[in-house]
Structures are given as C-alpha cells and as structure tokens.
Amino acid sequence: MANEILVLGATGKTGKRVAGKLQKMGIPIRAGSRNGTPPFDWDNPENWPAVLDGGQKVYITYYPDFVTPGALEKIRRFVDTAKKTGVQQLVFLSGRGEKEAEEAERIVTDSGLHWTVVRSSWFMQNFSEFHFLDYILGGHITVPKHKALEPFVDLDDLADVVVEALTDEKHNGKIYELTGPELLSFKDATRMISEAINKPIVYEEVDMDGYVKILRDYQIPEDVIWLMQYLFTEVLDGRNESIKNDIENVLGRKPTTFREYVAKASQTGIWNIKN
C-alpha cells in the first residue's frame, strides 16, 4: 500500500467521489469498504491493521453517524491503530453542529498526526441519490415539522475539498465548514426540483410521530429512523443557519448553487417520475 491513500467508505456517498477524483489524478488509492482488499468494516477492528498497512494518508468517514452507540470508541481505536501502522495524515469528515461530531473531531485533532477536519452541511444529493429520492419519484415528499433553513452542500464540492486536503499540506491543522451559497427550506428545494422536471411534487410537513410511521411504512431500518429523528429534532434547530466561505477559500471558486445541482441531476434522468 506504499503511497496509496486509504479511502474509507469508498463505495459510499462521499468516498466514491473522493476515490474517483484521486484516481483521475493518477494517485493510487485503497478502497476501505466491505468489498475492498482487504475488506474494511467498522465492526471488525481485528482487520484494521491489514487495511492500514503501509498507508500514509487516510480519508475517514464514519457510518451511520457519530451519535450511534459505540461510535466514538471505534473512531478512537481506529486512530490509534492508524498511528501504530505508520499513518501520517488524517482527513476527517464531520458534521456541523453535532456535539458528538465535535467529540470525534477531538480524537483526530489530538492524535499527534497531521489532520484536516471537513464539517459538512446536508448533502444536496440526499434528494437524488439517497433518502428523499423515493419520495420524489412518488411525487410526494414528507418531512417532520421544522423551522430552520439549511445551506445544502454539493457532494462534488465536498469531494474536491477533501482531495485538496489529501494532496496539499497547506491544509494541515485546518477545520473547514462546507456549505452551499444560500439558505433554503426543504420546501424551497422541493419546488426547484419540481420546476426543473416539470412535474408536481407535493410537499408536506407532519409531526414526528407521523413521520416515523411513514418511514416504517416504507420499511426504513430502525437505526436510520432513529437518526432522522435526531437530525430533525437536534440539528435542524437553527444552529446551522449560516453560510461559510470555506469552499471558495479552498477551491478558488464559488460553491455550487442548489439550482445548478438540480440542473445537473435532472439531466441524468434520476427524477423521471413513476406514474
């Protein structure tokens, strides 16, 4: 693995983009996933030394979230293992406004290794690749009642920042907060998608009990349901209603707007509504 960059979650939301961008640059990577060689699993620490062996840099993503039981202990053990195997640099994906995420960050920043922390807003791609896609395809999106606006961030912007942090030492010791250039409601986001695909999408807000029932009707796993409850009750309370300039400062360009993201995603046909 000499000179390879280990990318955890290499088949996941951000990892696959980071891995792809590094490979296009001709930089060898090792995929840290259950299908990798050797395989990586957060629940199988005995295999971590083999996964880390010989590597100098690691992009760390933790799934499903820092608030899940045992998350901090696993991250601490992984960082300790990374130090013992000779890793020199960590780039850590964190979340904005989460107490548990900040505790996880401290494990990384206190490690004695070179580090960069990337705090992310909600992904724009949640509407096209993840949780809300099925709702949009069904023409009806439902979220819990909330008041906060969110500066949704484009995953390609995030991945570009991570790649910069992994390939340029000037980002060592920096904490970046990644946001889009505007504060939007979920209703605003839904309206933009509806306009782009020229199809109606009903937007509805319900109380948390009703939302949980809907998720269970969709047969969403209980750990994901619990996480969504946490995010909408604890994180979307206004604490993250701010826009940061870190994407522009790192990349030298403006972050992607939600309309730009919608135009890009709609061209793929991902939102062709099922009638």
**Number of separate domains:** 2
Instruction: Give the ordered list of helices and strands.
Output: EHEHEHEHEHEHEHEHHHH
Helix amount: 25-40%
Largest beta-sheet characterization = 6 strands, parallel
Globally, the shape reads: globular
CATH topology of the largest domain: Rossmann fold
Mean pLDDT: 94
CATH homologous superfamily identity of the largest domain: NAD(P)-binding Rossmann-like Domain
Strand ordering within the main sheet: 2-1-3-4-5-7
- Spans of 5+ residues with little confidence (pLDDT < 50)? none
Alpha carbon gyration radius: 19 Å
Protein model, in words:
This protein has 275 residues and is α/β, with parallel strands linked by helices. It has two domains: 5-120, Rossmann fold, CATH 3.40.50.720; 123-152 and 180-241 and 256-275, UDP-galactose 4-epimerase, domain 1 (Alpha-Beta Complex), CATH 3.90.25. It is 40% helix and 15% strand. The chain has eleven helices and eight strands. It has helices at 15-24, 48-52, 71-84, 99-109, 133-137, 155-167, 186-197, 208-217, 222-235, 246-251, 258-266, and strands at 5-8, 29-32, 57-60, 89-95, 114-120, 140-144, 174-178, 202-206. The chain has a six-stranded parallel sheet, sandwiched between helices. A two-stranded parallel sheet has the order 6-8. Helix 1 (15-24) packs across helix 6 and helix 3 (71-84) runs parallel beside helix 4. The radius of gyration is 19 Å and the shape is globular. The model has no long low-confidence stretch (mean pLDDT 94).
